[in-house]
């Protein structure tokens, strides 16, 4: 189901994964309080040359940092000489173009008072989980892809954030990570892929340890992903993402309400579009039909609006954020913004005060180097996506889960450093390269679990033992089964570290598993095969189109009768039937059931891909929020 120039055809509804062209569908988190209505963007910046190293060798003339977080004499109060101002203007354009990716933006402006800006940055541990994924493998040229998790916090930890976010009664609670985007920059820096995960997604949150007080948060299943930030900080959200996607994360950047407002003011606004008049009471956004240049608090309102767009769920808000980011990249790459060095100084001050980053990214110099990588990507090779989803069978009106098949395909493409725009024909979706040849069959140990019992399908008794026995017959003498209950839509073969990749591939080949089923995971110690609901019979994984793999959709959510508006923006009941969306996905496949190479190597349509050069996108306004 393709989206048109109006963002919004796909929305949460009674039929998982389907969206009506009018943007109607089931609601999300109707009971949520205004304090949870978040939606910030994280963006990046800086580039060019001339930033001092981490020893601060170029700070003398710019001034030393003063006490209490204020610049010392000659710092923010002073103006740089004309030569530096001209140079800063050149640097600024590259800094600004990255602003839409990592809200830091103009860290390059730290040129003026480098050490002071370093002191503004807040730093935290990258990963609070017990285990970490191995780094992404380097390509033949020795280059590695870069994965950065961008987080928007709804923290009310300051009077300014309380004023912007509302809900003063929530000022003392731990913040939620209500905006989560993974930015993947290819190893050769030719393309960028962005994956948003809706805040309402149910996931497993791994065991995490708070680095400040040593408190241990036990692993929890079926938790909303935005609550992971409460378990010790952003490092637990990183751990949750690594477990969900199998993608190793190199850095994170987190921003709050005030940072978004200050950043948007400094860049002079970003063009966005709505297809009708919209008023969202909770976010405060009020806008007439057409294109508008949003900045300051209105930009924050745009990024926070949920009920006003599409079906009123977090999915629509994600699409609005993608539009904002793309528009900012295009506008700033044109070189029309941030030419005033004084504004750059203000922006650098605001950005560094608003940011929390991992310790390895905790200096202006390192942020500057990061922006230098980001600036190389043409806007036409940027692809924004949303994790394919279906309604959570246990709470279909409020939460979502990853869509079987499509979500794992999207994650697999990024793990394999394949551009989501389908323009990497020479690459195969095979994950990181093995560190060596596979071990002899008889020495490869694998534990097989039966995960065929899902919310919509009964368990197939003995499946784990059946497949384990088949592996033993093929020579994998150490294959064993475990009767611990599992429930999983997709079959997966997980391994703990890169050195086990070759053994995993040998097992996958023996069973006929697709490459996307093989992934590295922090949740296992050795090779672990979970037989999912997509493989209910036989000892060889069914090919695409086989009956055994057809029934793997989640249970349809609750719908309303045609013509009746539901709560929180829910619209009419869809006429679609379970499986329609999966059939639409098969349009790219020839009749033999095998997907085409093009279909294999591009983002699934259910991820709502948006190209960085798409200037026709316009947000569809929820019919209940028009005026």
Automatic annotation (TrEMBL):
Q: What keywords appear on the UniProt entry?
A: Membrane, Transmembrane, Transmembrane helix
* Domain called Cell envelope-related transcriptional attenuator: residue spans: 177-333
Which one Pfam family would you cite for this protein?
Answer: LytR_cpsA_psr
Residues spanning the membrane: 94-114
Q: Where is the LytR/CpsA/Psr regulator C-terminal domain?
A: 444-535
Q: Where is the composition biased (Gly residues)?
A: 65-77
Q: Where is the composition biased (Basic and acidic residues)?
A: 51-63, 420-431, 544-561, 574-605
Q: Which family does it belong to?
A: Belongs to the LytR/CpsA/Psr (LCP) family.
State the protein's name: Transcriptional regulator
């Amino acid at each position: 189901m393709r989206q048109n120039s109006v963002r919004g055809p796909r929305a949460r509804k009674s039929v998982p994964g389907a969206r009506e062209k009018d943007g109607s569908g089931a609601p999300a988190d109707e009971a949520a309080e205004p304090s949870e209505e978040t939606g910030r963007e994280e963006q990046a910046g800086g580039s060019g040359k001339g930033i001092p190293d981490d020893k601060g060798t170029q700070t003398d003339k710019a001034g030393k940092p003063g006490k209490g977080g204020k610049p010392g004499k000659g710092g923010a109060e002073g103006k740089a000489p004309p030569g530096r101002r001209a140079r800063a203007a050149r640097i600024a354009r590259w800094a600004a173009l990255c602003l839409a990716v990592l809200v830091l933006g103009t860290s390059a402006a730290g040129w003026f008072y480098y050490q002071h800006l370093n002191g503004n940055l807040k730093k935290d541990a990258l990963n609070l989980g017990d285990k970490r994924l191995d780094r992404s493998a380097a390509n033949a040229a020795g280059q590695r892809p870069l994965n950065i998790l961008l987080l928007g916090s709804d923290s009310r930890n300051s009077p300014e954030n309380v004023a912007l976010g509302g809900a003063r009664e929530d000022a003392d609670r731990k913040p939620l990570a209500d905006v989560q985007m993974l930015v993947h920059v290819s190893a050769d820096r030719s393309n960028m892929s962005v994956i948003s995960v809706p805040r309402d997604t149910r996931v497993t949150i791994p065991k995490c340890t708070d680095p400040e007080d040593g408190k241990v948060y036990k692993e929890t299943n079926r938790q909303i992903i935005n609550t992971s930030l409460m378990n010790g900080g952003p490092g637990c959200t990183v751990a949750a993402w690594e477990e969900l996607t199998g993608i190793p994360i190199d850095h994170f950047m987190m921003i709050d309400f005030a940072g978004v407002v200050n950043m948007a003011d400094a860049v002079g606004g970003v063009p966005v579009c709505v297809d009708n008049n919209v008023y969202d009471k909770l976010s405060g956004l009020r806008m007439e039909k057409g294109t508008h240049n949003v900045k300051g608090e209105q930009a924050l309102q745009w990024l926070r609006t949920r009920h006003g767009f599409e079906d009123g769920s977090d999915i629509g808000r994600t699409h609005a954020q993608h539009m904002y980011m793309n528009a900012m990249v295009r506008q700033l790459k044109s070189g029309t913004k941030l030419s005033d060095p004084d504004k750059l100084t203000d922006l650098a001050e605001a950005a560094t005060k608003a940011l929390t980053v991992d310790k390895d990214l905790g200096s202006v110099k390192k942020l500057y180097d990061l922006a230098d990588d980001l600036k190389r990507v043409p806007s036409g090779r940027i692809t924004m996506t949303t994790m394919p989803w279906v309604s959570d069978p246990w709470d279909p009106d409020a939460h979502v889960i990853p869509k079987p098949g499509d979500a794992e395909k999207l994650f697999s493409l990024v793990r394999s450093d394949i551009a989501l725009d389908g323009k990497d024909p020479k690459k195969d979706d095979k994950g990181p390269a093995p560190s060596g040849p596979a071990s002899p069959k008889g020495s490869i140990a694998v534990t097989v679990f039966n995960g065929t019992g899902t919310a919509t399908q009964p368990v197939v008794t003995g499946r784990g033992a059946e497949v384990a026995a088949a592996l033993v017959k093929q020579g994998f003498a150490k294959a064993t089964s475990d009767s611990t209950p599992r429930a999983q839509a997709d079959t997966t073969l997980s391994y703990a570290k890169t050195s086990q990749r070759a053994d995993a591939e040998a097992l996958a080949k023996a069973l006929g598993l697709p490459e996307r089923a093989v992934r590295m995971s922090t949740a296992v110690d050795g090779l672990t095969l979970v037989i999912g609901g997509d493989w209910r019979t036989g000892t060889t994984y069914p090919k695409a189109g086989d009956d055994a793999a057809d029934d793997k959709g989640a249970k349809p959510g609750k719908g309303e009768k045609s013509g009746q508006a539901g709560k929180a923006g829910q619209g009419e009941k869809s006429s679609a039937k379970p499986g329609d969306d999966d059939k639409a996905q098969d349009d790219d496949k020839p009749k033999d059931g095998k997907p085409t190479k093009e279909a294999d190597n591009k983002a699934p349509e259910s991820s709502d891909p948006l190209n960085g050069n798409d200037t026709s996108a316009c947000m569809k306004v929820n019919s209940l929020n028009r005026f």
